[in-house]
Amino acid sequence: MKRLHSPIRRYLRLHAVVWLLLAASTASLELPAEQAARQYGGQSLVLYRDWTSMLAPLGQTDEMGKLKAVNQFINRRIRFADDFAIWQQSDYWASPLEMFAKGAGDCEDFAIAKYISLRSSGIEAAKLRLTYVKARIGGPDSNVSQAHMVLAYYPSPSAEPLVLDNLVTSILPASQRNDLTPVFSFNTEALWAGNTRSSVDRLTRWRQVMERMRKDGFVF
């Protein structure tokens, strides 16, 4: 059989690489078995069962329906508390199972759980970014802000994102959340600061919580 010309071979290799990258981005995240939740004790098993029951039918739901179902479940079923009250640490990023065990979480924990939920429902990673923001408090004329994290959903690469926030029930376009000033964003694929993209491995806490989730059986 004749060998393929070099340009054709290069094209096929490039096509294969692009296909693999797209597959990695669009493949659904797999959740761990129930036994992983059981070992955490507390409320973890009950919340895990309710969580997976909520997620089960979402494969047949449009993306806006998925956003609403996940945002409502996490916001209603998890109590907001700061890290020191929950973990006796100043800043701890919990996995969904860790958060379920406590029945409570900080803003990062809410955003992480929503990200994991939506990825497992079939929304590709490229459409989701955990976003670190400065949140203005005290009214529109206030100069006071505090660190906060939300989940942003991008219907398309150039679209205005929708914001999922544990402190606000409604899912709103970013233009209607002028109380939030983005600082950086990230997902399982990359880290963005402004227009600069870099490796997400720079985020130690994100890397650590990802490692714990993998040990529990999450497959990314």
Automatic annotation (TrEMBL):
InterPro entries: Papain-like_cys_pep_sf, Transglutaminase-like_Cys_pept. Gene3D superfamilies: 3.10.620.30. Pfam families: Peptidase_C93. Residues 1-29 form the signal peptide. It comes from the Bacteria. The keyword Amino-acid biosynthesis does not apply. Keywords: Signal. PANTHER family: BLR5470 PROTEIN, PTHR39327. This is Transglutaminase. The lineage of its organism: Bacteria, Pseudomonadati, Pseudomonadota, Betaproteobacteria, Neisseriales.
